[in-house]
Every structure is written in C-alpha cells, then in structure tokens.
C-alpha cells in the first residue's frame, strides 16, 4: 500500500469521488480515453498499488535524474488552483500537484495531463488577438512571464505555446508556496490506438522547442537529460525569476526539471 493520499478538500479514493470533489471542466472530458479521466484513473490506481505512489511510466522518467530518483509520493492535490499573475488575474488549475521526497529533499511534481489535444495557441496568436483591446493586460502579463522564465521579452519567445510558459511559471510559484526544494513540470501523455498522430507530433515539437530555449538561456551548470517524443526529463534549470518587489514572485532559487511520460491506452 502506497503512502500517497490524493485530496481535493476531501480524501479521494475512487473515480466517482474525484469527479465530485475535483471539478474538471466539461462533462465530455470525463470519459474513457480523455486525458482528464485517464489521469485520475491512473493515479488512483498507483496510490493503492505501488509502494511509491507513482504510475510506473512516471517513476521510470523520474529515475532518469539523480535529484528525482526513487521519489516517494506522499500527498497529491487534484485540480489545485494557483495564482500566477502579480495581482490577481488568471489562475492555473493544476491537473494534479504531487508532493514527495527524494534524496532527503522535498519535491513538487506538477502533472499536466494531455491526450491528442494541442497545447493551445502560440504567444504570437494570443498577442494578436488582444492587440485591439485597450483594457487587456495580457501583453504585460506575458512579458512578465517571458522575462521570468527566459530573461527575454515576449516578442522573442512568441512562437512558443503560451500554455507551457504559463504552466511552468505556475509550477515554480506553487513550489515556492509548498516550500519545495525541487520543482518538476511533467507532461503525462495518454495515447489511444486512434489518437491523432499529427497532434501528438506537434505537441512533442512544442515541448521540445520550449525545453531547447530553456537550455539556451539556462543559468545553472550541470543540466542533463534529453527529451524524446514519448519520454524524458531535462534539468536542472535556473531561471531569472521576477524582481524582489513582485507581489507574487516566480522564484529563481528552486531547481526546475521539465519532463514527459507516456501511457499507452488499450
């Protein structure tokens, strides 16, 4: 029996409780084959079947790096909400935040479930959409995130997917809030036999391009690992972070890893 306890206000032990206690968006996302449903099913099974509380494909990827090797999951929060912007604004609803220990350190694992849906729009397309809205704060918000993660203006990272930028920033903010010593943003991909191959390939390329720029802008020596189409874990990365006067700081002192793990559905 695993020590992992999954929570969302109340303890979650079965799929029906996950659906009831952890709001997950549209009803059509809560069915076999959809990433939201499959993620819940996979992690619930791991919570009682495996001693470390991790699905085997997640454990395999975490074991690629010394900092996350032999991680034991202790608590997890489904659909946890984190404020990312400096003063309110948009929040990140994490699919699953897992807190555990590895090598005597407190690890935060931010799980992003995905199937054959895309990582949403590029930064350039979202900026274009908001261009004619004088009341929009999006340009300032995305610029803050781009500077914090890459040390660059938004225009320099405009081809990246905004969702990846926003969610990685949220991983670090939540890690700071939970006093974690290491942060991991992990894409947990679920592939069906009929999954759209082009979408899977496009998502893999989007993540690869994000990680590649992180590697180019990294401030920490000793970064290891590679990202393949179906699995991998790269890091640690040290980002620039936000200025000390920032009201909701994105920290620059928590080592960051970016990973991907794939679950093949039958």
Structural summary, described in words:
By secondary structure, the chain is α/β, with parallel strands linked by helices. The protein has one domain. The chain is 33% helix and 23% strand. It contains 7 helices and 10 strands. The chain has helices spanning 15-21, 35-49, 56-62, 123-130, 138-150, 162-177, 197-217, and strands spanning 5-8, 10-12, 72-78, 81-83, 91-93, 96-102, 105-114, 182-191, 232-237, 256-264. The strands form 2 sheets. It has an 8-stranded mixed β-sheet, sandwiched between helices. The two termini are 26 Å apart.
- The neighbouring-strand order within the major sheet is 2-1-3-6-7-8-10-9
Structural class: alpha/beta
Share of helix, binned: 25-40%
Structural domain count: 1
How many DSSP helices? Answer: 7
Distance between the termini: 26 Å
Shape, please? globular
Alpha-carbon Rg, integer: 18 Å
Low-confidence spans: none
Q: What's the total count of β strands? A: 10
Order of helices and strands: EEHHHEEEEEHHHEHEE
What percent of residues are in strands?
Answer: 15-25%
Q: Give the averaged pLDDT, no decimals.
A: 93
The largest sheet is: 8 strands, mixed
Question: What are its keywords?
Answer:
266 residues; eight-stranded mixed beta sheet; two-stranded antiparallel sheet; 33% helix; 23% strand
């Amino acid at each position: 029996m695993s020590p992992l306890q999954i929570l969302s206000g109340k303890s979650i032990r079965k799929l029906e409780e996950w659906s009831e206690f952890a709001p997950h968006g549209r009803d059509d996302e809560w069915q076999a084959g959809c990433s939201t449903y499959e993620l819940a099913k996979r992690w619930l099974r791991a919570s009682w079947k495996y001693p470390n509380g991790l699905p085997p494909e997640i454990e395999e990827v975490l074991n690629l790096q010394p900092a996350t090797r032999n991680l034991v999951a202790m608590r997890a929060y489904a659909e946890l909400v984190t404020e990312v912007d400096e003063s309110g604004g948009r929040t990140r609803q994490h699919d699953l935040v897992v807190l555990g220990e590895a090598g005597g350190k407190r690890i935060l694992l931010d799980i992003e479930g995905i199937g054959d849906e895309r990582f949403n729009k590029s930064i350039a397309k979202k900026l274009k959409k908001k261009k004619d809205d004088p009341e929009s704060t999006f340009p300032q918000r995305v610029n803050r995130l781009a500077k914090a993660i890459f040390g660059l203006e938004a225009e320099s990272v405009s081809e990246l997917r905004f969702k990846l930028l926003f969610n990685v920033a949220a991983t670090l903010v939540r890690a700071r809030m939970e006093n974690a010593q290491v942060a991991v943003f992990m894409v947990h991909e679920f592939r069906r036999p009929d999954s759209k191959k082009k979408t899977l390939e496009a998502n893999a390329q989007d993540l690869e391009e994000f990680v590649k720029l992180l590697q180019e802008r990294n401030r920490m020596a000793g970064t290891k690992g590679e990202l393949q189409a179906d699995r991998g874990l790269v890091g640690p990365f040290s980002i620039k972070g936000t200025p000390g006067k920032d009201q909701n700081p994105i920290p620059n002192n928590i080592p960051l890893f970016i990973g991907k793990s794939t679950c093949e559905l039958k």
